[in-house]
Every structure is written in C-alpha cells, then in structure tokens.
Amino acid sequence: MGMIGFTVGFIGFLLHNVIDAIEEPILEKALELAKEGKIGIVWCWRVGMGVILASLSSIIIVYFRPSAGGSGIPELIAFLNGTSIRHIYNVRTLLAKFASCAFAVSAGLFAGPEGPMIHIGALVGAGLSQFKSDSMGINLAYFQRFRNPEDRRNFISAGAAAGVSSAFGAPVGGLLFSMEEVSSFWSNRLTWQVFFCSMIAAFTTNIFNSAFLGFHYQLEILNNIIIFIPTICLGILGGGLGSLFVFMNLKIVRLRDWVETFSISSRLKKLMKIAEVVIIITLTATISTTLPLARKCQHQKVPIKTGVSANGKWRYTNQTYNELSSLLYTSQDHAINQLLSRGTHKQYSPEGLLYYFIPYFLLACWTSTASLSVGLVMPMLTIGALYGRMIGELLVIWFGEHFYYGEKYSDASDYKAWMDPGAIALIGAASFFAGVSRLTISLTVIMIEITNDVTMLLPIMTAIMVAKIVGDQLTHPIYHALLEVKCIPILDEEPVVYTQDPNGRSVL
Amino acid sequence: MGMIGFTVGFIGFLLHNVIDAIEEPILEKALELAKEGKIGIVWCWRVGMGVILASLSSIIIVYFRPSAGGSGIPELIAFLNGTSIRHIYNVRTLLAKFASCAFAVSAGLFAGPEGPMIHIGALVGAGLSQFKSDSMGINLAYFQRFRNPEDRRNFISAGAAAGVSSAFGAPVGGLLFSMEEVSSFWSNRLTWQVFFCSMIAAFTTNIFNSAFLGFHYQLEILNNIIIFIPTICLGILGGGLGSLFVFMNLKIVRLRDWVETFSISSRLKKLMKIAEVVIIITLTATISTTLPLARKCQHQKVPIKTGVSANGKWRYTNQTYNELSSLLYTSQDHAINQLLSRGTHKQYSPEGLLYYFIPYFLLACWTSTASLSVGLVMPMLTIGALYGRMIGELLVIWFGEHFYYGEKYSDASDYKAWMDPGAIALIGAASFFAGVSRLTISLTVIMIEITNDVTMLLPIMTAIMVAKIVGDQLTHPIYHALLEVKCIPILDEEPVVYTQDPNGRSVL
Q1: Which DSSP helix (H) or strand (E) runs through B133?
Q2: Do B450 and A372 touch (CB under 8 A)?
C-alpha cells in the first residue's frame, strides 16, 4: 500500500510538472505578442501549438491504445462492479494515458488532468500489487498471495484513492471518493489501508513539489518535514498510553465486579456505587483546588493572547499567573483551548503539565467506569493534549531555545513554527484519541472540524495511523473491550478463521 | 431525517447551556475566594458542590435507570450489530441520561458530555422515527412504514451521527463516525440521508448558539445566515445545469456514433476522430485569444491582491487590465484561483463572465467526449465557479452597492462579507460538481481540502445536497450515464423491484 501511494504520488507530481513545463512557455509567448498588439499572430501561435499538441494527444489514443480514452472513471467503476474490460490495467495503457493527458491539457483544451490521474492511480494499484505484467514479462512469486480477485479489487480501490489524493492534495477526499463512487465492495479493514495509501500519495506529491523550495512546504509552514519525527513518537506514545487506558479501564470494571460479590443486599450495592462517585468527586475537587499551589506563581513574561480561548484569564493578579490554575479553575473546553493555543510556548512548563497529567489520567480512567452518564471524549482529548504539549514544550527547551531566546518570539512566518507546542498538543490529542478508540478516518475529520485548521492534516493522519497500529498490537479498542466486559456479543464483519487446516485437506 | 437533525441539534444546544449555567457560577465563586487566599474555603466549596452534583447524577443512574449509565456507545454498537438490549431506546432513558450527564460534567469531574450526546442522538432517531412510545402512550399510524428493523437501524445511525455533529460541530465527522464505528450495516443510500441529518443538526446547534448574538455566527462571519438563500438557488441551478451537461454529453456521444455509421473504412473513422479534436482545439484557441477583445480594458480601480493566486498578473499595462484575459491567458489552475479569490468583488463583471461561461460550457462538454484522455473535474469546477461568481457579482451590484460604494471596501470583519463573490463562486463550483457527479460526502471533503477553509462547510454541504436532489430528478449521474452509453453493465447495490404485486398475492 505504501508503495502504491508513493508511486501514484510521484506520477501525480510528474504529470503536473510536465503540463506546466509545456504550457507556460506557450502562454508567455502569447502574452508577449499580445502586449505588442499583434492579435493575429497570437491567434496563429495559439491555434498552431494547440493543434500540434492536441493531435499528438489524440493520435496516441486513436492509434496506440483506444481503451485509454476518456477519463477512465466509468471503466473503473464497472471493473470494480465485476465487469471485466480489456486492456484497462496495462503498462501500455498507463503510458498512453499519461502522454495523452499531458498533451491535451497543455494544449489549452477546456479539460483537466484529474480524471486520468484517478485511472492512473488504479492502474498502478493493479499493477504493483500483482507485480506481473504480460507486456513487460515480469512475474514475481512473492506477490502470488495477492493474485486473487478480492485483493486485486482492494488494491485498485486504494490506487484510485491515491490518484484523487495526489491530484487534489486531498487524502481524506480521495478515500471517500473511492468509497462512495468507485467501489462496489467495501470493508472496514480496507478503510484504513486505503487511508494509509492515500496519505502516502498526498505526502509524496507534496514533498516532491516542495523539493525545489528548500524542502519545506511553501504555503503550509507548519507542515514542515521535521514535524513528522515528533509526530511518529507521539503516535507510538498515543498507541501505548491508549492501550494502557483501555487496560486499566477494564481492570477497574472487573475489580468492582469482584468487590460487589462480597456485599449481599442490592441496596448496599447501590449505596456503594454512590459512595464511589462521592470519593471520585472529592479526589477530583481536591486535586483541582490544591494542585496549583504546588507551582509557584510566575511572573508574566509571555505576551498572552486574549480572545475566544480566554488565555490567561484566570491570573491571580495582573502581573503573575499560575500555569495550573489556568487549567483547573475553568471549564474543560477552555482548558483544552488553552493547551491547543498557538504561539504561547512559554506559558506552561513540562513539569507542571506532568503534575497535572498523572492524576488526570488515573481519575479520568476511574470516572469513566463509575455509575454516571458521562463520555470519554473530552478526557481523551485533554490527556492527549497534555502529553502533546509536554513534549512540545520539551522540544522548545531542547532545540528551540537559541531561537526563542530574548525578545524573539515565534510568529507565523517563522521557520521553526513547526515546534509550536500548541500544534504538537493537537497531534497528541489526536494520537491518544486514536490509541483509545482506534478510529481513523472519522477521527481525522472530527479533529479538523474541531480546530478549523486543514493545514495540520498530514501530521494528524500520520499520528492517528501510528497510534492505531501500535494500539492494535496491544488491546482491543475501548468500545469493543467494554462490550466484552458487559457480556454483549458482537459479530465482526469477517468471520475469524480458527481452523488449523485452511486447505481442508483433512476433509478430503 | 430533518426532524431528527433538528431535535438532536436542539438537545445538544440545551445540554451545553445547562452545563455552562451550573458550572460557571461555581467556578467564579471559587476564583473569588482563591483571590482572597482562602484555599481552605475554596476546597470546601468545590468539594461540597461537587459532591452534591455528582451524587445527584449518580442517584439518577443507580435508582432511576441503570441502563443509562456509561457513555452508551458500546450498547449502541451492539444494538446495530443485532443484539437487543433492554431500555436503551426509551424516553425515560433519554431524560435520565440528559440530567445525569449535565450534573456529572458540571460537577467538575474529568469527563465530557460527548458520549451521552451520541447516545441521546440515537435515542431521538429511534423514537422520532417510530413515533410510538410505550412510556408516553403515543402511537401514530403514519409512521407504521418505518416500523421495521432496517429502517429503525438506519434512523438510529442517523441519530448517532447527528449527536456527534451537534457535540463537536462536526457534521462530516459525525457521518463518518457513524459509518466507521457505530454501524454494522451501511448502504450508499443511507450516506446522503445521514449526511442531510447531521448537516441539519450542526446547523441547528449553531443557530441556537448564535441566536443570542444578533443571529449570525460569532466566529464564522462568512457563514451568515443569509448566505443560505443564494446557496439554495445555486444548488438548484447546479442540479439543473449539471443535468443539462450530462444530457448534452450523452447526445454528443450518440451523435458521433450515428455519424460514424456512414463512414465505411476504419481508417477514415480514426482520421475523423483526430479531425474532430483539431476542430475543438481550433475553436478553443480562437475563443481564448479573441474573447478578451470583446471587453474593453478597464482602468484598475480595485486593490488587487498579489501572491499565490497571481491576481491581475496578466494586465496589459500597469494601469489597465482586461477581465477576461486574466482568465484566458493563463493556466486553468490560476483561472479557478482567481475566480475563487476573496475580497476582489469589482474585478469581474457579470456580463463578462457570461461571455466566457457560454462557450466554455459547450466546449467543455464536447471536449470531454472526444478521443482524448482528459478529465471532467477541472472544467466542472470552472463552470461552477463561473456562474457562482456571476451570481455573486450580481448580488453585490443589487444589494451591496450602497455598502461598497466609494472607497469603502469589504474586509473580513464586514457584516456583508457573506456576499463576497469569491465565496459564492466556491459554492457554485461545489453545486455544479454535485449536479454532474452526484457525489455528496467525498465532494464536500475534497472542496474543503482544496480550499483549506473549513468555515464554508455548511453552505457547501447545503448546495451539494440541493444540487443532488434536483439532479437526481432529471438524469443519471455522469459516470453511470457514460457506462450506459458504453454498454457496460453495472449492478446497483439494491435490486430494482419491477413487480406490480409487492405482496406476492398472485403467487399464493
């Protein structure tokens, strides 16, 4: 899948640049002539060049490979629906498609390269997964396992998604396009494989496009390439801590069940449940009240933004504020907003956040199992944002000090803005959420919609992906684990195969 | 579906405000005391209030309705998987859940209201669709048709999506959450029903939240309530024009097939195809070159932004520029960028855009059927952006003139910024794309990812929805129509029922 994503991303980059390289000189020449007022010559020039390029494009299709004509999307839909069509997955089709599309678009026709890009993606998916080409005479034994209709279809779906992802820079859109329009068959397992594939494709196209400009994104400064190192660390951490959270959650539920076996009357049981809640709230309130005392009030040095996020609203006096009271003497929405706020990298210290993180983690875990009607989402976001911010602050201390030292504060155009602890807190929140719930695509979109910020899309996707992979090695997702504890049966989409003898030889 | 969305959105708003109303006075009191340095009293106050609220919350669950405990998501997953659980869809559960959740969160526990909100959404979906409640003794005959397990499941999925949508303000995320995590069964038809439902939920919550602040969104100025009037018009237009596009596309393909029956040799046929392409490119180049001559060069009055979108880059001289040459003497990416650019409302005139729109529409339609490997996406976006911009400019002329007159230009904090033609062009592009391709969710996400702007989410969703509904009345989606023309069979997910006798009485 990663290979498909990379290849499609690279082809997308190539196609885009070939078109640009042909189109730009033509248009510039035309403009020069137009400035001199020679409209007749402009007309000759544009028509002439257009006819040459468009004819080339058309000749390729008509004589060389008629099946490469059109956008290719209808054929793709039909194939995935079960109709076999000749020549649509073929190296020669790929070449014809690429060349014809590049010539046609750069001729100035009113048409775009996106449709063919989707077909090319599917083609790459089909070809790379089989690693067998009649035209090229290649046939690798290792890929034998993928040579069945189902896997082939899945790889083609992934390739189509990667095509959209590369053409529009829209990885989530690519996945959804493949799911909604192209594919007739879809499984949940496929979702995150395609998710991964289209993420890689968007990433590759981005990297190559920006390779000529100092190896960092031109528009999206935050998405610096280096951010992916802490992102992957956060993903691993998110997966690990998320699994720990699920594990502890289950242990607490089981412990309570075990304690309940000792008490006899059902009335006592109910009272015990309420007593448990009272203990939790007492602990919570105690911590909320007293924890800020453990930290000295700091003199306010950092320029604190005011506004919606209500940063630094709860200072004790005008000159000093306490980092923890700003988190604990307010509602959770505000606390999360403050953790995620950008450009306030000196507001919290790593140790202070650690003091808050440990009791919060334990109590949130306990609270969610008590007899209350409460959800896990807010605590999950807070925990993730806490350790994300912690790591972000550490990064600033370790690597960013020479940059932030003195009066030089980070701003949007700053090259080091990637280590803004607010951005890293956001990635942390996404990773912990993913580690606990194992959602992929919906979580990505929710995080984007919460923060109203599309620029962090790729790091968030990466962190979620890593957290899911790590977490899946360790425990069930939380909701499924809770179902198990409650003794509610659930059927997976695909049956688990228990047989020792998959070929059924013993039957024969 | 709309009713479910509205109800869930309203409950979400209510829950949020109840929590705020209880929590804020407590925290403010605590802060006041803390400022006076009386930490002991603060502790007593917070613990006391917390214990009261949390006990209330717990008592409701333990004595009144134990099945409302926890977040409710595992039960939801299990129900949609086929396991029946007692009391989870019940008015009393709804009330218990609401009250317990409100008390628990405002007590300051480390827990959030999102999980219960999802369960409440599903509950509303289940209840409203059946319109039958044993607890309340209501039973309406009209809703008999929905009283089967499949529809019930679908309504519950929609309700859960609306819950997420309302809790996070994330309509797309809600739909995906419902699809990925909650539901075990899913059909494509359900996608856009749930899409609609969660859109309404997010919209309702937004409206109510902002009702106290002058009836327009606080943060997202562009999403003014009035923008939905042109949005719906654009949606209808998009559906209509999209269907026209599909219709003409098919006619051209059929016409070509008919012409080809006259020519005998296959060599001639191939030459004819190439000749057709040459004719198209000649026409295209001619129009591209000469159309700008039809418009006078205007004196540059509007402050034109420079930068990525390369606005006004192709002026003839420094003082004047030609509105159409700025679209036609550049690549299509740039042209679309210019059409979608904000705050440049005087750059194009409606008539100028109309001159461009008509030939573009016809030629794009023809080009896409020729023997070329080209896609439809770019032209679709351009056409949509063209008529969107046209309407946007008209709106400015009709209603906005007294505002923009003289030197007073719109800026981001302007109340009338909703009629920025760039924003309306974006909605137009989405609506035409939807009218042609009938995509819903993936198109929304692609548009968001292309523009990197989440604030326009709700108008875009509305336009896509309307365009899809209008278009579905008129023609097939383009890809399916093309499949039909190419005589490729495709199987729908659900079989079409042709029988006149659905009850099978004749068989008996």
Answers
A1: strand B132-133
A2: no
Q: Pick B112's closest partner by Cβ from A61, A293, A377.
A: A377
Question: Which residue in chain B is spatially nearest to A94 when comparing CA positions?
Answer: B373
Q: Which residues of A333-361 are buried (b: 16+ CB within 10 A; e: fewer)?
A: bbbbbbbbbbbbbbbbbbebbebbbebbb
DSSP bridge partners of B241: none
> Does B285 contact chain A (CB < 8 Å)?
yes
Q: How far apart are CA B268 and CA A140, in angstroms?
A: 43
Structure tokens at B205: 């919550």
The nearest CA of chain A is from the CA of B137 a distance in Å of 26
| pLDDT for residue B407 | 37
What is the average pLDDT value for chain A, to the nearest integer?
Answer: 71
CA-nearest residue to B78 within chain A is: A490
Residue-wise pLDDT tens digits, A400-454: 544 443 334 444 334 445 557 777 888 888 888 888 888 888 888 888 777 777 7
What pLDDT, in 10s, does the model give residues B41-85?
A: 777 877 888 888 888 888 877 777 777 667 777 777 777 777 776
Task: Give the span between the Cα atoms of A98 and A118, in whole angstroms.
Answer: 11
**Is A78 close to B483, i.e. CB distance below 8 A?**
yes
Dihedral (CA of B395, B397, B398, B402) sign: positive
> How much is the pLDDT for B29?
77
CA angle A200, B372, B358 (to 5 degrees): 100
Contact between A116 and B374 under an 8 Å Cβ cutoff? The reply is yes
**Fold (topology level) of A223-485:** Clc chloride channel (1.10.3080)
Burial class (CB in 10 A: 0-12, 13-18, 19+), A423: buried
- Is A25 near chain B, with CB under 8 Å? no
What is the domain class of A2-215 according to CATH? mainly alpha
Is the pLDDT score of A497 beyond 70?
A: no
CB proximity list for B43: less than 8 A, separation 6 or greater: A285, A286, A289, A290
Residue window 206-235, chain A: list those with CB within 8 Å of chain B: 219
- Pair A235, A429: CB distance under 8 Å: no
Of A62, A273, A374, the CB nearest to B111: A374
B67 touches chain A (CB under 8 A): no
Cβ contact, residue pair A173, B442, below 8 Å: yes
Of the candidates A284, A379, A490, the beta carbon closest to that of B108 is on: A284
State mean pLDDT over B29-37.
72
Distance CA B180, CA B186 (A): 10
For an interface test with A, give the residue of B76, B110, B270, B334 to mutate (most A CBs within 10 A): B110
- Name the residue among A52, A45, A427 with its Cα closest to residue A233: A427
Q: Helices marked H in A169-212 — which ranges? A: 171-177, 188-210
Q: Where in chain A is the domain with CATH 1.10.3080.10?
A: 2-215, 223-485
ipTM for the assembly = 0.73
In angstroms, the CA B273 to CA B276 distance is 5
- Under a CB-based contact definition with an 8 Å cutoff, are residues A437 and A384 in contact? no
Q: Is A45 in contact with A29 (CB distance < 8 Å)?
A: yes
Tokens of residue B333, six digits: 């990416």
Residue A405 burial (10 A CB sphere; 0-12, 13-18, 19+)? exposed
Label residue A340 by pLDDT band (50, 70, 90): confident
Q: How far apart are CA B413 and CA A440, in angstroms?
A: 36
Query: Do B373 and A445 make contact, defined as CB atoms within 8 angstroms?
Result: no
**How confident is the model over B404-454, as pLDDT tens digits?**
433 344 443 344 455 577 778 888 888 888 888 888 888 888 887 777 777
Percentage of chain B exceeding pLDDT 90: 0
Beta partners for residue B138, in sequence order: B133
User: What percent of chain B stands above pLDDT 70?
Assistant: 68
